[in-house]
Protein backbone atom coordinates (compact mmCIF):
# COMPACT_ATOMS: atom_id res chain seq x y z
CA UNK A 1 0.00 0.00 0.00
CA UNK A 2 1.40 3.37 -1.07
CA UNK A 3 2.06 5.88 1.68
CA UNK A 4 0.75 9.39 1.04
CA UNK A 5 3.55 11.91 1.11
CA UNK A 6 2.80 14.74 3.60
CA UNK A 7 2.33 18.20 2.18
CA UNK A 8 5.38 20.42 2.21
CA UNK A 9 5.25 24.05 3.25
CA UNK A 10 5.29 25.19 -0.38
CA UNK A 11 2.69 22.66 -1.51
CA UNK A 12 0.32 23.80 1.24
CA UNK A 13 0.80 27.42 0.23
CA UNK A 14 0.14 26.64 -3.44
CA UNK A 15 -2.99 24.68 -2.50
CA UNK A 16 -4.18 27.63 -0.43
CA UNK A 17 -3.48 29.93 -3.38
CA UNK A 18 -5.59 27.75 -5.72
CA UNK A 19 -8.49 27.80 -3.27
CA UNK A 20 -8.10 31.57 -2.94
CA UNK A 21 -8.18 31.92 -6.74
CA UNK A 22 -11.48 30.04 -6.85
CA UNK A 23 -12.96 32.35 -4.20
CA UNK A 24 -11.63 35.41 -6.02
CA UNK A 25 -13.16 34.22 -9.31
CA UNK A 26 -16.56 33.94 -7.62
CA UNK A 27 -16.31 37.43 -6.11
CA UNK A 28 -15.06 38.92 -9.39
CA UNK A 29 -17.96 37.29 -11.26
CA UNK A 30 -20.40 38.83 -8.76
CA UNK A 31 -18.81 42.26 -9.18
CA UNK A 32 -18.63 42.14 -12.99
CA UNK A 33 -22.14 40.86 -13.66
CA UNK A 34 -24.19 42.33 -10.81
CA UNK A 35 -22.51 45.04 -8.76
CA UNK A 36 -20.59 46.78 -11.59
CA UNK A 37 -22.17 45.39 -14.79
CA UNK A 38 -20.48 45.99 -18.14
CA UNK A 39 -18.47 49.18 -18.56
CA UNK A 40 -19.35 50.37 -15.06
CA UNK A 41 -16.55 48.17 -13.73
CA UNK A 42 -14.00 50.52 -15.31
CA UNK A 43 -16.03 53.72 -15.00
CA UNK A 44 -17.30 53.45 -11.44
CA UNK A 45 -14.43 52.08 -9.36
CA UNK A 46 -15.02 48.34 -9.62
CA UNK A 47 -11.32 47.56 -9.80
CA UNK A 48 -10.49 49.95 -6.97
CA UNK A 49 -12.97 48.09 -4.78
CA UNK A 50 -11.67 44.65 -5.72
CA UNK A 51 -8.03 45.56 -5.08
CA UNK A 52 -8.53 45.06 -1.35
CA UNK A 53 -10.11 41.66 -1.95
CA UNK A 54 -7.29 40.64 -4.31
CA UNK A 55 -4.61 41.68 -1.81
CA UNK A 56 -6.28 39.75 1.00
CA UNK A 57 -7.27 36.70 -1.01
CA UNK A 58 -4.12 36.13 -3.06
CA UNK A 59 -1.44 37.49 -0.72
CA UNK A 60 -2.41 37.37 2.92
CA UNK A 61 -3.80 33.84 3.21
CA UNK A 62 -1.20 31.91 1.14
CA UNK A 63 1.69 33.85 2.73
CA UNK A 64 0.48 33.07 6.24
CA UNK A 65 0.16 29.41 5.30
CA UNK A 66 3.72 29.44 3.94
CA UNK A 67 4.96 30.92 7.23
CA UNK A 68 3.18 28.69 9.74
CA UNK A 69 2.73 25.38 7.92
CA UNK A 70 5.05 22.68 9.16
CA UNK A 71 4.25 18.99 8.51
CA UNK A 72 6.29 18.06 11.60
CA UNK A 73 3.89 19.87 13.93
CA UNK A 74 1.38 17.79 15.92
CA UNK A 75 -1.87 17.44 13.99
CA UNK A 76 -3.91 19.38 16.56
CA UNK A 77 -1.50 22.30 16.53
CA UNK A 78 -1.43 22.37 12.72
CA UNK A 79 -5.24 22.34 12.52
CA UNK A 80 -5.39 25.16 15.06
CA UNK A 81 -2.90 27.32 13.12
CA UNK A 82 -4.63 26.77 9.78
CA UNK A 83 -8.04 27.45 11.33
CA UNK A 84 -6.78 30.77 12.68
CA UNK A 85 -5.43 31.68 9.22
CA UNK A 86 -8.78 30.78 7.66
CA UNK A 87 -10.58 32.92 10.23
CA UNK A 88 -8.30 35.91 9.60
CA UNK A 89 -8.76 35.54 5.85
CA UNK A 90 -12.54 35.24 6.08
CA UNK A 91 -12.76 38.35 8.27
CA UNK A 92 -10.43 40.29 5.98
CA UNK A 93 -12.35 39.14 2.88
CA UNK A 94 -15.60 40.14 4.53
CA UNK A 95 -14.20 43.60 5.25
CA UNK A 96 -12.85 43.92 1.71
CA UNK A 97 -16.11 42.84 0.11
CA UNK A 98 -18.00 45.24 2.36
CA UNK A 99 -15.87 48.03 0.88
CA UNK A 100 -16.83 46.80 -2.59
CA UNK A 101 -20.51 46.98 -1.63
CA UNK A 102 -20.03 50.52 -0.30
CA UNK A 103 -18.58 51.82 -3.57
CA UNK A 104 -20.86 49.88 -5.92
CA UNK A 105 -23.14 52.13 -7.99
CA UNK A 106 -26.68 52.43 -6.65
CA UNK A 107 -27.93 54.65 -9.45
CA UNK A 108 -26.90 55.87 -12.89
CA UNK A 109 -28.61 59.22 -13.40
CA UNK A 110 -28.80 61.00 -16.75
CA UNK A 111 -28.80 64.81 -16.58
CA UNK A 112 -28.95 66.67 -19.91
CA UNK A 113 -26.08 64.98 -21.80
CA UNK A 114 -24.18 63.12 -19.07
CA UNK A 115 -24.67 59.96 -17.03
CA UNK A 116 -23.68 60.35 -13.36
CA UNK A 117 -22.79 57.19 -11.42
CA UNK A 118 -23.61 57.48 -7.72
CA UNK A 119 -22.79 55.12 -4.85
CA UNK A 120 -23.93 55.04 -1.23
CA UNK A 121 -21.11 57.31 -0.04
CA UNK A 122 -22.08 59.96 -2.61
CA UNK A 123 -25.57 60.14 -1.12
CA UNK A 124 -24.55 59.90 2.54
CA UNK A 125 -22.14 62.83 2.14
CA UNK A 126 -25.22 64.93 1.37
CA UNK A 127 -27.03 63.55 4.43
CA UNK A 128 -29.55 61.62 2.35
CA UNK A 129 -31.58 59.48 4.75
CA UNK A 130 -31.13 55.71 4.64
CA UNK A 131 -34.87 55.41 4.11
CA UNK A 132 -34.65 57.35 0.84
CA UNK A 133 -31.92 55.02 -0.37
CA UNK A 134 -34.34 52.08 -0.08
CA UNK A 135 -35.70 53.16 -3.46
CA UNK A 136 -32.30 52.33 -4.90
CA UNK A 137 -31.95 48.94 -3.23
CA UNK A 138 -30.99 45.88 -5.26
CA UNK A 139 -27.91 44.09 -6.50
CA UNK A 140 -27.76 45.95 -9.80
CA UNK A 141 -27.68 49.74 -10.33
CA UNK A 142 -30.93 51.51 -11.25
CA UNK A 143 -31.18 53.83 -14.27
CA UNK A 144 -32.89 57.23 -13.97
CA UNK A 145 -33.02 60.62 -15.62
CA UNK A 146 -33.86 64.12 -14.42
CA UNK A 147 -36.07 66.39 -16.53
CA UNK A 148 -34.19 69.55 -17.55
CA UNK A 149 -34.72 72.37 -20.08
CA UNK A 150 -34.28 71.40 -23.73
CA UNK A 151 -32.00 74.35 -24.43
CA UNK A 152 -28.37 73.89 -23.40
CA UNK A 153 -28.04 77.60 -22.60
CA UNK A 154 -31.13 77.51 -20.37
CA UNK A 155 -29.92 74.33 -18.66
CA UNK A 156 -26.46 75.79 -17.98
CA UNK A 157 -27.97 78.97 -16.58
CA UNK A 158 -30.24 76.95 -14.28
CA UNK A 159 -27.36 74.70 -13.27
CA UNK A 160 -25.09 77.67 -12.50
CA UNK A 161 -27.75 79.39 -10.39
CA UNK A 162 -28.28 76.19 -8.39
CA UNK A 163 -24.54 75.84 -7.70
CA UNK A 164 -24.24 79.49 -6.62
CA UNK A 165 -27.19 79.05 -4.26
CA UNK A 166 -25.63 75.96 -2.69
CA UNK A 167 -28.41 73.66 -3.88
CA UNK A 168 -28.02 69.90 -4.19
CA UNK A 169 -26.86 68.88 -7.70
CA UNK A 170 -29.70 67.53 -9.84
CA UNK A 171 -28.12 64.09 -10.16
CA UNK A 172 -28.37 63.66 -6.39
CA UNK A 173 -31.99 64.82 -6.07
CA UNK A 174 -33.74 61.48 -5.57
CA UNK A 175 -37.11 63.24 -5.51
CA UNK A 176 -36.60 64.28 -9.16
CA UNK A 177 -35.65 60.84 -10.48
CA UNK A 178 -37.67 59.36 -13.34
CA UNK A 179 -37.25 55.81 -14.61
CA UNK A 180 -35.16 55.81 -17.78
CA UNK A 181 -37.09 54.58 -20.79
CA UNK A 182 -35.94 51.86 -23.19
CA UNK A 183 -37.68 53.55 -26.15
CA UNK A 184 -34.93 54.72 -28.47
CA UNK A 185 -36.83 57.69 -29.96
CA UNK A 186 -37.86 59.03 -26.58
CA UNK A 187 -34.36 58.41 -25.24
CA UNK A 188 -32.78 60.45 -28.06
CA UNK A 189 -34.56 63.54 -26.69
CA UNK A 190 -33.58 62.76 -23.09
CA UNK A 191 -29.92 62.26 -24.02
CA UNK A 192 -29.74 65.64 -25.81
CA UNK A 193 -27.66 64.89 -28.87
CA UNK A 194 -25.88 61.68 -27.90
CA UNK A 195 -24.33 59.95 -30.92
CA UNK A 196 -25.87 56.67 -32.04
CA UNK A 197 -23.21 54.11 -32.99
CA UNK A 198 -24.83 51.77 -35.50
CA UNK A 199 -22.00 49.23 -35.30
CA UNK A 200 -22.31 48.81 -31.56
CA UNK A 201 -26.07 49.37 -31.44
CA UNK A 202 -25.73 51.93 -28.66
CA UNK A 203 -25.54 55.62 -27.79
CA UNK A 204 -22.09 57.08 -27.13
CA UNK A 205 -22.60 59.26 -24.05
CA UNK A 206 -20.50 61.09 -21.46
CA UNK A 207 -20.25 59.51 -18.02
CA UNK A 208 -18.90 60.70 -14.65
CA UNK A 209 -18.29 58.97 -11.33
CA UNK A 210 -16.31 59.61 -8.15
CA UNK A 211 -13.41 57.73 -9.75
CA UNK A 212 -13.17 58.90 -13.35
CA UNK A 213 -14.97 60.40 -16.31
CA UNK A 214 -15.08 59.65 -20.01
CA UNK A 215 -17.56 58.24 -22.50
CA UNK A 216 -19.39 54.95 -22.67
CA UNK A 217 -21.67 53.00 -24.99
CA UNK A 218 -25.26 52.72 -23.68
CA UNK A 219 -27.66 50.11 -25.09
CA UNK A 220 -31.20 51.46 -24.52
CA UNK A 221 -32.88 48.07 -24.88
CA UNK A 222 -30.83 46.21 -22.28
CA UNK A 223 -29.83 49.34 -20.31
CA UNK A 224 -26.30 48.01 -20.30
CA UNK A 225 -23.09 50.00 -20.64
CA UNK A 226 -19.91 48.88 -22.40
CA UNK A 227 -16.72 50.11 -24.06
CA UNK A 228 -15.74 52.75 -21.50
CA UNK A 229 -13.21 55.26 -22.86
CA UNK A 230 -11.51 57.34 -20.12
CA UNK A 231 -11.17 61.08 -20.56
CA UNK A 232 -7.82 62.22 -22.03
CA UNK A 233 -6.97 58.65 -23.11
TrEMBL record:
The keyword Transmembrane applies. The keyword Transmembrane helix applies. Keywords: Membrane, Transmembrane, Transmembrane helix. The chain crosses the membrane at residues 12-37, 49-70, 82-101. This is Pilus assembly protein.
Amino acid sequence: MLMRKPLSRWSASVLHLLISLAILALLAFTALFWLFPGGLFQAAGGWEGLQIVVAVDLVLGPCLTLIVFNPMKPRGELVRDLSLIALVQVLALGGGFWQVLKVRPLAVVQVFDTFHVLNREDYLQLNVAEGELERLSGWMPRYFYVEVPESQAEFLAQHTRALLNGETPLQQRIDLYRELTTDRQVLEKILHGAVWEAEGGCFRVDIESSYRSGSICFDPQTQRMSDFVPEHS
